[in-house]
Write a structure and sequence with these properties.
globular; 6 strands; 11 helices; six-stranded parallel β-sheet; alpha/beta; Undecaprenyl pyrophosphate synthetase
């Protein structure tokens, strides 16, 4: 029996090596390309993807969901470079990906989504790139203003950060969107623009110091709750899960106060290529961790 198993192992390894070698040949490459471009192959691939997403979604929905998910949307420029696209095209696909992710959250019932779209450090980028980004931000905000999904599902949209650093037309569009959705209470979408975690804490300290000086707050009463109530995200609980795309494993000045007990997940995929399966796997990983909150 042992000899038979060894023979079968050697045979399977030989077959695998032969197939692998054949596929690397010019004929093999052409055959592989023909198969991958065939209608049948694409249909089977779609069905397999749909089945895997369905199974993952069933697993995710059988466990408690994170109430608040925050995402560092990273990797647009590297995605463009890898595919030979312009940065504008990559950023446009990134905008479309955010719309998809919001759909996934609505579908699963995740109530709060916070996304890191543009940091204060990003203002140091080239004028050409900033013009592309500013144009896209304005378009994204205006699209959200008219998006029936936002109003049908009652999504309150907050644009958070040092908005005074952004062009006036973006600030005006953001103000209109926030005013239109401010009474919605089913879901929350926070979009961090010209945002910096340290600056957010500094702004909170300044506001608290001002109130202490005015006699509205006693210094001895200042605690963690006081600080939290003066942050840009004061109206929502801290994130349960912080997810970053692109394979980078750092926080990059995002929600520094709020992430104290958040679970962190790093996806090795660029933001525009982020799939629903990737999102579900991140949530499933979160669900499999035991959150102790220091206890």
């Amino acid at each position: 029996m042992k000899r038979r198993n060894n023979i079968l192992t050697l045979l399977s390894e030989s077959i695998y090596a032969f197939v692998n070698k054949a596929l690397r040949s010019e004929v093999g490459k052409k055959l592989k390309k023909m198969i991958e471009e065939s209608t049948v192959y694409k249909k089977v691939k779609r069905e397999i993807k749909r089945y895997r997403e369905k199974r993952l979604k069933e697993k995710v929905l059988s466990n408690p969901l994170p109430h608040h998910v925050a995402i560092i949307m990273d990797g647009n420029r590297r995605y463009a470079k890898n595919l030979g696209l312009s940065e504008e095209e990559a950023y446009m696909r990134g905008k479309e990906k955010l719309e998809e992710v919001l759909e996934w959250c609505l579908d699963l019932g995740i109530k709060i989504l916070t996304v890191y779209a543009f940091s204060t450090e990003n203002l140091k980028r080239s004028k050409k790139e900033l013009n592309i980004l500013f144009k896209l931000f304005k378009q994204a905000i205006e699209d959200a203003y008219h998006d029936e999904r936002i109003h049908k599902n009652g999504v309150r949209v907050n644009v958070i950060g040092k908005l005074e650093l952004l062009p006036q037309d973006i600030r005006d569009a953001a103000g209109k969107l926030m005013e239109k959705t401010r009474n919605y209470g089913n879901y929350v979408l926070n979009v961090a623009l010209a945002y910096g975690g340290r600056q957010e804490i500094v702004d909170a300290i300044r506001e608290i110091a001002k109130k202490v000086r005015e006699g509205k707050i006693n210094p001895e009463d200042v605690d963690e709750k006081t600080v939290s109530s003066h942050l840009y995200t004061k109206d929502v609980p801290d994130p349960d899960l912080i997810l970053r795309t692109s394979g980078e494993e750092r926080i990059s000045n995002f929600l520094l106060w709020q992430l104290a007990y958040s679970e962190l997940y790093f996806a090795d995929v660029y933001w525009p290529a982020f799939k629903k399966e990737d999102f579900l796997r991140a949530i499933l990983t979160y669900q499999q961790r035991k959150r102790r909150f220091g206890r």
